[in-house]
Amino acid sequence: MRSASSHFSAPPVQYPVGRGLVLLWGLLALLGSGAAALLHWLLQGAGHSVVRLSVAIFFWLYAAGAVWHFWRHRVRGLLQWDGLQWRLEIDQRGRPAHSLEGALWVRLDLQNQLWVCLDVPDGRSTWLWLERQSAPDRWGDLRRAVYSRPRPDAPGAGEPAAARRTDA
């Protein structure tokens, strides 16, 4: 086994979380396409039943409300990698921030956007949408960090994430 080289280690990085115009536009496009499909369905004669029409409009309004709720309550803060572990400092708008520490997993990589999951040791997961435009000068460092392993001297660095978790 080769020894780890600091040359190949990801640098420490701090990256803002919570902005995300691409995510917003994607969600709005989904809502708009749902509205267009509903309108097409209604214009094709499916609107003769008041019950079907009411149910369809209710589900679209429910989806719109869910998108609005998601957008207003998404996680905002600062994601940090120190070479050993990931930490998320959550900004709670006027209240003291709290932090989560754990393992970060990439779930979707679109080159300029990342959808990641921060698994904390107590079993909770926090999903984050990261975009290059939030901090373009730090994007390369962030991408190196999300795909790097903790330094070998980190506690539990050789164990899989599932083995480091403790069940309550």
Describe this structure in words.
The structure is a single chain. With 168 residues, this protein is α+β, with helices and mostly antiparallel strands. The protein has helices at 21-43, 50-72, 139-146, 161-164; strands at 13-17, 77-81, 86-92, 95-109, 113-119, 125-131. α1 runs antiparallel to α2. The model is unreliable at 1-7 and 157-168 (pLDDT under 50).
Summarize the structure in short.
35% of the residues lie in helices and 27% in strands.
User: For the report, how would you describe the main beta sheet?
Assistant: 6 strands, antiparallel
Structural class: alpha+beta
CATH class of the largest domain: Mainly Beta
* Range of helix content: 25-40%
As for the CATH topology of the largest domain, it is PH-domain like
